[in-house]
Specification:
This protein is of the alpha+beta class. It contains 2 helices and 7 strands, in the order βββαββββα.
Length: 146
Amino acid sequence: MSLPTKVTRDGLLEKRSSGLLQLWKKKRCMLTDEGLRLRNCKGPAADHAPSPCAAWSSGSRAKELLFERMVTVDCVEYKRDLVYFTVVMATGKEIDFRCPQDGTAWNAEIALALVRYKNLQAVQSGRKRQISAAHLGSTEEEDEAL
């Protein structure tokens, strides 16, 4: 995701760590048409940033969850004004997240963006097959004419 991409949503999301204690950690997230980019939110400046994009200027490395490696957004549960959901990767790895229930939940945004990405890939694949078939068909017709 090094090229500029359209940002669908930008803000805070909590991710459960994969360590022994499995603590919830706040992440600054940016949802694009290619996937989800996560950065650590350290210190009070990240929580009180004037805009969600202000935290992106720091030098910390972002973790990228690309749609091409995602399978689904799963396990939606609602507890105490929070939405809990899981992103399932193609490797089988499950990444747990939570966000506030108010407004449009992150899980819905991510799921819709994933569906759009997969549909676009299917359409492009279908077009390539049609072009290939048309090209092969015209070659056979030309061979018969000779």
